[in-house]
Amino acid sequence: MKKCFKTFSLLMGISFLFFICSCSGSNNRVVVHSYSSVITDNDNAFADKRDGQIYKTVVIGNQTWMAENLNFEPAKESWCYEKTPSNCAIYGRLYSWDAAQKACPEGWHLPSKSELDTLIEYIGKDTAGTQLKANEPNWDGINRYGFNALPGGQRNGTILFFHGFFGAGKYGGWWTTTETTVSYNSPDHSFYGTAGSAPIMTVSSSSVPYIFYMHSKRTSVTPSTGKSGHSVRCIKDD
């Protein structure tokens, strides 16, 4: 009996030591959510071959998304918020629509509105915004799925206003590939989450792309002028 107890104690000690060693090397790992359809972990991270930047990924339903905003710098039409590099490190870069369509790395692409709708339908329209947003002050997010959407703001791209930056810490927008036809200052939009008045749109063309828009209490898919600067969240190719 004593021999068995010593053997058991030794095994428990080895197991505990292994646990401590494993935890000590996991400072950069993201907590894996208990939800069966969600995987967020640096084991699923990948390196962008173009510049070596590493991005975490998350599986939600049957889709694999970046769990961070893209921060690749193309030849033109992308910006750090307020032209400050430290903001790119936090929020990723802001892209024009033309730049956004070519910005994702090989094996990934800019999502369509249909792919975004699939994500929203899976989570639930009434709570999608809150569950996808990062848990940040004044941002109304719980980040249940590890999507970690941050309020990166935008760059104004309309001809009626100067090309300034605004909204970081308050709201964010993510490009899609899908275009729609709208009338001046009367956007077609679908709200997800708490409803509210639509943002004023100043479009110079009848054909404009959709963005996934998040505000403190509101989430919607709404048109935006393609010259504006918004964030990019890539989805993995099938």
List low-pLDDT spans: 1-41, 191-205
How many helices? The count is 5
State the end-to-end CA separation. 57 Å
Principal-axis shape equals globular
Average pLDDT, all residues: 77
Number of strands: 15
Helical content, roughly?
Answer: 10-25%
Q: How is the quaternary structure best described? A: single chain
**Count of discrete domains:** 1
**CA radius of gyration:** 21 Å
**Strands side by side in the biggest sheet:** 11-13-14-12
Largest sheet: 4 strands, antiparallel
Structural class: alpha+beta
Order of helices and strands: HEEEEEEHEHEHHEEEEEEE
Strand content: 15-25%
Architecture overview:
With 238 residues, the protein is α+β, with helices and mostly antiparallel strands. It has one domain. It has five helices and 15 strands. The strands form six sheets. A four-stranded antiparallel beta sheet has the order 11-13-14-12. The protein has a three-stranded antiparallel beta sheet with strand order 1-4-5, with no helix packed on it.
Q: How do the helices and strands line up, and which of them pair or pack?
A:
Layout: H1 2-24, E1 38-40, E2 46-47, E3 54-55, E4 57-60, E5 63-66, E6 78-79, H2 85-91, E7 94-95, H3 97-101, E8 108-109, H4 113-123, H5 128-132, E9 152-155, E10 165-168, E11 172-181, E12 190-192, E13 207-214, E14 219-223, E15 235-236
Antiparallel strand pairs: 1-4, 2-3, 4-5, 6-7, 8-15, 9-10, 11-13, 12-14, 13-14
